[in-house]
Design a protein that fits this description.
This protein is an alpha/beta fold. 56% of the residues lie in helices and 12% in strands. The protein has one domain: 3-Layer(aba) Sandwich (Rossmann fold), CATH 3.40.50.300. It is globular and about 40 Å long. The structure holds adenosine-5'-triphosphate, (3R,4S,5R)-3,4,5-trihydroxycyclohex-1-ENE-1-carboxylic acid (SKM) and magnesium ion. The site of adenosine-5'-triphosphate (ATP) has 21 residues, from helix 1 and helix 9.
Amino acid sequence: MKPTFLIGFMGSGKSTIAKLLADDFVDLDTVIVEKIGMSISDFFEQFGEAKFRELETETLKSVSTTHQIISTGGGIVMSEENRQFLKDADVNVVYLEGDFDKLYARILADKENIRPIAISRTREELFDIYQHRADLYDAVATHKICVTDKTPEEIVKEIQL
Ligand SMILES: Nc1ncnc2c1ncn2[C@@H]1O[C@H](COP(=O)(O)OP(=O)(O)OP(=O)(O)O)[C@@H](O)[C@H]1O
Ligand SMILES: O=C(O)C1=C[C@@H](O)[C@@H](O)[C@H](O)C1
Ligand SMILES: [Mg+2]
């Protein structure tokens, strides 16, 4: 079976769903955190977003196709290089698409995982990013699943159909 990448906005459940889909999964944010030895939010503070994006691209290219399921970070589609990589690879790219306000509520509630992109912005600013990224997710996705008001188990079933 082809490897499957999960893409989508912060809070759409990429990391949650990846774990449920297969034992052989990898989460790119987790790999980056292991590499840098600090949280993503501390890394943003010390080194900035541009450095994080470099690491993200490097990690995407190095670990990806050796696993069955790969959950990406919400900003993976920001780079043309990453989008091209996903388009060229012989893989499934599943876009988990959800209602902005529901995802925003989850992001704010998820105290274990602080998203620097979200906490440094107002709801309106983040909504602009969500709208901009929606087109980019669409452009690389081979499949799209609506996650609004669905349990992780329901989403897993849909992906496996
Ligand atoms: N279908 C769902 N229903 C309810 N809660 C969910 C669902 N999917 C994920 N969550 C919760 O939403 C929060 C964010 O989920 P998760 O970390 O999997 O998102 P993500 O897409 O990986 O985000 P990021 O892009 O920041 O990595 C977590 O607290 C998770 O438990
Ligand atoms: O949407 C984003 O830009 C991000 C999402 C997270 O998964 C992390 O990759 C990081 O916090 C940036
Ligand atoms: Mg995640």
